[in-house]
Amino acid sequence: MIGSIDWLGVLAAGIAGYIFGAVYYTVLGTQWMAALGTTKEEIEKRKSPAPFVIAAIGQFVLAVTLSILAGAESGTGPMLALALLLWIGIVMTTMTINHSFQGNKPALTIIDGLHWLGVLMLQSVVLSLV
């Protein structure tokens, strides 16, 4: 299974997902912070590079996983269908459960959920084209 992974495609998909997240949360930063119940000043106090490193590693792992699950699938259509299924069946269910028990606002689930939908779709397109 691992031997059949297109590592260049995985790298490209991981980078694309990371860039998408950076742009997405830059555009929706104010709404995301309000939904999270925090301020820009509180976030800036953290100044740790750890979340960015974790995000980069996570994007790469997500791309590898998507590539493995796609297996012999080819074409953008089947890849997008797989991404949508994973988003509905795994990402949104787990995130919605966690956010509800954590007492997070539904807006946070929507903002974060749409981010992951965008990442999965973009990574699927990249993997199907490389």
Q: How would you sum up this structure, described in words?
A:
There is one protein chain. The chain has helices at 7-27, 29-36, 40-46, 50-70, 76-102, 106-129. With 130 residues, the protein is mainly α. Helix 5 (76-102) packs antiparallel against helix 6 (106-129). The protein is globular, with a radius of gyration of 16 Å. The model has no long low-confidence stretch (mean pLDDT 92).
Q: How large is the radius of gyration?
A: 16 Å
Overall pLDDT score? 92
Task: Please tally the helical runs, counting DSSP H or I stretches of 4 or more residues.
Answer: 6
Number of strands: 0
Low-confidence stretches: none
Task: Give the % helix.
Answer: over 70%
End-to-end Cα distance, whole Å, is 18 Å
Look at the helices and sheets and give the structural class: mainly alpha
Query: Major sheet: size, sense and barrel closure?
Result: none
Give the strand content: under 5%
Order of helices and strands: HHHHHH
Backbone shape: globular
List the helices and strands and how they pair.
Blueprint: H1 7-27, H2 29-36, H3 40-46, H4 50-70, H5 76-102, H6 106-129
Summarize the structure.
With 130 residues, the chain is mainly α.
Which structural traits does this protein have?
130 residues, mainly alpha, 0% strand
